Amino acid sequence: MNAWVQRLDNPLSAWLRDPAATGYAALFLGAFAAFLAIPPIQARTVTWPIVVGVVAATLGIWTATRGRRRLGYGAVAAGLIGIGLGILATRSGTGNLNAVFNAQLIAQMFASSTPLIFGAIAGMFSERSGVVNVGLEGMMLMGAFWGVYGADVGGSWVVGLIIGMASGGLLALVYAYFAIHLRADQIVGGTAVNFLALGITGYFFFQLYQGNYVSSGVSTIPNVRIPGIAGTHFLGPAIGNLSIMIWAGFALVIVSYIVVFKTPIGLRIRACGEHPRAADTVGINVYAIRYGCVVLSGLLAAAGGVYLSDGRGGGTFNDNMTEGRGFIALAAMIFGNWRPAGAFAAALLFGFSDALALRLQVYSPSASTLFRVLPYVLTLIAVAGVIGRTIPPAADGKPYRKQ
Amino acid sequence: MSTVDPANVPPETPEEAARTGTLIASIALKQRAGGIVVPVLTALLAFLIGGLVVLATGHDPLKAYNDILDGAGLNWVAHPTTNLVNTAAYNLSQTLLQTTALILCGLAVAFAFRCGMFNIGGQGQYLIGLYVANWLGHDFAGMSLAPHILIAVGGATLAGAAWAGIAGFLKAAVGAHEVISTIMLNWIAIWIGEWLFGDGGPLQNPANATAPISNDIANSAKLPVFWGEQELQGLHIGFFVALAALVVFFVILNRTTLGYEVRAVGFNPEAAAYGGINVRKNLIRAMAISGAFAGLAGALDMTGYLYHYGQSDIPVSQVGFLGIAVALLGRNTAAGVAIGGLLFGALLFGTTHGLQAGSSSIDPSLAGNLTYIIQGLIVLFVGADVLILYVWNSRKRLRPRAATT
């Protein structure tokens, strides 16, 4: 070891030479390469995206050769995708670019993310207590239909929210009975819940509304207009006038973090998910905790569904309205490593891709439908674990037998 | 049949088997317990609860079920005839048409199950099969009959295998759970189809640029029809292909090394790996074979009777999903899948086209959703261990009594 290396041997330089840090920096640069070409920076030459993308890819290769292969190759991919997107963006008209990338995109990202945030937090509660909840999709769908029905019949979106959440909680209770007491296979049981919800909502949608759209004039979930911000240039359209459920989603992330990681009840929930026998031994009622968490999971997922139909959808419902969002939420939860903040970040990412896909339609009417695969492809990449390994609760998905 | 004879069961308590925890172990338990009683009970219970829903919404459940069975052509048994002027005979031929695809989609789910994987991507693999069969069936017009059909069906089958293989590869390489990856692949397949057949899409029929409907496949790619007329959606020879697939499924699983390895991995991956079996290779291979069955289903539907496909039909199609219930009800055996396929084929046709709107006691749209409710209930009940254990235990209680008398 020579003097030059020794001189650099302080904490900061050690961090700089850590391949992981370089890898994350390269990932960031890859994303930045594409960002250069879109508003507000909007470089009109291909040089900058290519230069930054190549730097990202090079750093990625360096990372990969230093032992962090998965992260390194991820960074290489990010760099190459960044170059590709950057070139595409410089080739397209500034009018189109401005139509896609503006403050509205941020508002749409939050709107697309909110059902996923509710779903991901719902899944986290269930899985932290040791019950895999593949039925999130079905519970969300129940909330979507019965929420609109409640708002239509009850005359208020609050009634809709309550009825919608209750329907999801009820379906979750049935699932909990099969998963906990009858020790059914949880994946099969969850799939059954999804089919049941599809059949029930479809059946009653036809019975009550003849399969047509719910008549207009339904009380919908209101937006919150923030006086100081709503009129401003960029923040106004971005966050000045968001649905109340979007803000509730943000609050939910914080509250669920505190509940799961900072309270005794959270400790009990996690104990049931990690080692139910030990939890039972110290006097925790494993079944009660698991029932509570699964039902809570149903309530929250259904709340996301209510927002989908009575908030974002403006009081409409159509068959199979959730379109796999329950599964995307599940993937967001896995991507976020069974933690509220991580799930929130992942849900925002998926929501962003969903919003982007909808806005990219200005480019090509034919290919517009093809952009809709974006969130699903991203989810597929996420569950493939391109970035880091995730660790589920140890007893996740294993039925518990009392002794 | 691949079901283990209950008399030869080794003295292992079902509780022990259930505790080993793997999905396939609990399914193997169900295959030993109760013979045919459990699936029949399961189906009856599901129909009963479905009937209660019908009753609660102000319709007559008995009349509704009767109409559905008549709509499916199952009343044909009373007056058997091959003359399709007879409504029951026509309905039966249409039910068997649906059964063809359902058997293959059921086999797809069952094959993955036997390797310990839950393939809920049958719908996506089926759709990919449809698209590829449509493309090959249209683009290679001018070929003679046999090779064109072989190319279209073979290509679609391979495409289905490749589509499922993605999920198998992701599971083998990085441990991505196949349930999420196959569901995502379903949605990707759906949106690809919306693009392919939609306005300005590459496979849209250019004759009518405003209608989002695919090209018609060439006459040389249409499967011969053996019961009825080609123009009137007769029953095509793909039905026999599906029956042959049942035999192939049984032979592969029970009479080949490949099948032995697949089942070994399904029962216990660690033990299989210890015994020298390449677990990852088997996961990918089992998933690809599973997808091949579903892709074949799509290919036969396209070349057998659909010939073209509308954009709006894509998200409505449920054949691949029904395959899950078919496989679970049939306990992942060839014979069980055949019976499950017939039951759901009858439900699928009987609740949609077979029911005459207006003359029936229940509207076809309601009845169609009733099918999904029944499907969900069947999957729910089949997954419940305790229900099965109850039957198992009551059988054990019965047996000594029978021996002493």
Explain what you see.
The complex is a heterodimer of chains A (403) and B (405). Chain A has 403 residues and is an all-alpha fold. Chain A is built from 20 helices and 2 strands. Chain A has a two-stranded antiparallel sheet. The model of chain A has no long low-confidence stretch (mean pLDDT 85). By secondary structure, chain B is mainly alpha-helical. Helices cover 68% and strands 1% of the residues of chain B. Chain B has 16 helices and 2 strands. Chain B is globular, with a radius of gyration of 22 Å. Chain B has one domain. Residues 1-20 and 401-405 of chain B have low confidence and may be disordered. Chains A and B meet through α10, α17 and α20 of A and α7, α8, α13, α15 and α16 of B.
Which structural category fits the helices and strands of chain B? mainly alpha
Instruction: Please state the average pLDDT score of chain A.
Output: 85
Please identify the structural class of chain A as seen in this structure.
Answer: mainly alpha
Tally of helical runs of chain B: 16
* Fraction of residues in helix of chain B: 55-70%
What portion of residues of chain A is helical? over 70%
Distance between the ends of chain B:
30 Å
Strand content of chain A: under 5%
Order of helices and strands of chain B: HHHHHHHHEEHHHHHHHH
Largest interface: A-B, 51 and 59 residues
In the sheet with the most strands of chain B, the strands line up as 1-2
CATH class bucket of the largest domain in chain A: Mainly Alpha
Question: Strand order of the main beta sheet of chain A, please?
Answer: 1-2
Number of domains of chain B: 1
The strand count of chain B comes to 2
Q: Which value, in Å, is the CA radius of gyration of chain A?
A: 23 Å
What count of structural domains of chain A?
Answer: 2
Q: Beta-sheet strand percentage of chain B?
A: under 5%
Low-confidence parts of chain B: 1-20, 401-405
Largest sheet of chain A: 2 strands, antiparallel
Oligomer: heterodimer
